[in-house]
Amino acid sequence: MDYVFGSQGELGLKEPGSWSSILDLSTCFLLSPESVEIMKIVREWTRASGLPFWNGKNYTGFFRYLVIREGKQTGQRLVMLVTAKPTSGPVRAVSPRQCSPELRAVGGPTALPPDLEKPFTKLVHHLDRHASSIVWGINPLVTDLSIAQEIIPLKGEPWIEEEVNGLRYKITPNAFFQTNTLMAEKLQDTVKNFCGDLTDKTLLDLYCGSGFFSLALAPGAKKTVGIELDSEAIACAKENAARNNITADYFVNAAEKFSAGGGSAFGGDWSIFNPDIVIIDPPRAGMHPKLIKTLLEVLPPRIVYVSCNYLRFLEEAKELLAHYNIRKATALDLFPHTPHVECVFQLERKP
């Protein structure tokens, strides 16, 4: 879950239709009590720190986002505090022996700028029993994103693990992973069902993230390939495959750059993969128009489309249904207390 700081010290979510008005939350029904406590601790700590909050209108300030990731099956929690780049000095990794006694006591092998070491050490102490991993994320850009360009571990490893249907997944601070583990298991089962028998078939997983779907399906397929633009997610996918003893190939690339002809495996020739089944799980904005064009050129026998924005899927279906029929469809509530649902569609190529 990502929470944004307001310029007056608010911590919560943006009001609908607004990028500058922040709802200062006292609780959140989407999180565990432990994660709500983390949010309260961080709010009080930031307000007492004396450091400024980010102002999105003039791009000044320090505190920007709070990211909390929790493994429901493992009990592990990762906390990332996203800030602007500090102006008081560089951050550098050092050996545990070189960092301050206070930070060394809580496991932080990092040399912080002098004005940040004391408050950050206090934060780690406050969160110590609530989080297995605490990191400081630096976003020097003015873009309004909770993604960090630089990640500095303050406690533990800069990642956690989650278990879904018997598979162990590594989750890093920036990489996408399906929310709501218990419902994500049902989503994974649904995609398996919609893919059908994978014996002697090649599976192509577009927007594959950390391998959430492809790793669960790969043991039954002849060949499995995952494509994802986020290099951090692909690194996780490869590690997740290794730790679960699963064979799958993963490539860093934009899904729309894989065209129907010419190029290498990294450049985009789909004929190399010759997929029998394509899983598509795009962001809310949907597929890139070039990817739709490629799908209609390649015409894989079956497409399993996972959509967190069914209105966007309906727009894309206007083109896809010239060559495909929707054979199955279902909706899953991965986002309780919100109007959003996750939809899964099975599209079969017309004879």
From TrEMBL:
<dbReference type="InterPro" id="IPR029063">
    <property type="entry name" value="SAM-dependent_MTases_sf"/>
</dbReference>
<dbReference type="GO" id="GO:0006396">
    <property type="term" value="P:RNA processing"/>
</dbReference>
<dbReference type="GO" id="GO:0032259">
    <property type="term" value="P:methylation"/>
</dbReference>
<feature type="binding site">
    <location>
        <position position="178"/>
    </location>
    <ligand>
        <name>S-adenosyl-L-methionine</name>
    </ligand>
</feature>
<feature type="binding site">
    <location>
        <position position="207"/>
    </location>
    <ligand>
        <name>S-adenosyl-L-methionine</name>
    </ligand>
</feature>
<feature type="binding site">
    <location>
        <position position="228"/>
    </location>
    <ligand>
        <name>S-adenosyl-L-methionine</name>
    </ligand>
</feature>
<dbReference type="InterPro" id="IPR010280">
    <property type="entry name" value="U5_MeTrfase_fam"/>
</dbReference>
<feature type="active site" description="Nucleophile">
    <location>
        <position position="308"/>
    </location>
</feature>
<feature type="binding site">
    <location>
        <position position="281"/>
    </location>
    <ligand>
        <name>S-adenosyl-L-methionine</name>
    </ligand>
</feature>
<keyword id="KW-0949">S-adenosyl-L-methionine</keyword>
<protein>
    <recommendedName>
        <fullName>23S rRNA (Uracil-5-)-methyltransferase RumA</fullName>
    </recommendedName>
</protein>
<dbReference type="GO" id="GO:0008173">
    <property type="term" value="F:RNA methyltransferase activity"/>
</dbReference>
<comment type="similarity">
    <text>Belongs to the class I-like SAM-binding methyltransferase superfamily. RNA M5U methyltransferase family.</text>
</comment>
<keyword id="KW-0808">Transferase</keyword>
<keyword id="KW-0489">Methyltransferase</keyword>
<dbReference type="Pfam" id="PF05958">
    <property type="entry name" value="tRNA_U5-meth_tr"/>
</dbReference>
<dbReference type="InterPro" id="IPR030391">
    <property type="entry name" value="MeTrfase_TrmA_CS"/>
</dbReference>
